[in-house]
C-alpha cells in the first residue's frame, strides 16, 4: 500500500492520492479558509469508514436491508510533550431499514474486535468505544 502526498498551495494544503488515483485534501484547519480536513480528523474518518465498511459487509451477507447508514466519530485528545494524540474515541452508528438490531450490534462488535485494521492499529494506545442505533433506538 502506498499513497503520494503533494503540496498544492503556498501554505498547508496537501492532496493525498492512492494507487487508484482517488484523493483527499489535508490542511491545517486552525488557519482561516482551510480547504481540507486535518490529519487528526482524517484518523477519525478512517476509523468510522473502516468499521462502516465491515458493518455494511457483514449485514449484507446476512441479507439485512440497509436503507441508511451514518456514523459519527468523536475523539478526546491529551497532551504528550508537544503532540496531542487521541486518548479515546466514541463511534456512533445510525442504521435505518429492515435490520435485526442484534445482528447490527454483533456486526459492530465483530468490526472492532476482529476486522477493522484502523482501530486495531490504534488499539494499543487509544480506547475506542462504539454504540449502535437501529431505526432510532439504541441497541
From TrEMBL:
Under InterPro entries, the record lists:
KH_dom-like_a/b, OsmC/Ohr_fam, OsmC/Ohrsf
Which superkingdom is the protein from? Bacteria
Q: Which Pfam families match?
A: OsmC (PF02566)
Entry protein name: OsmC family protein
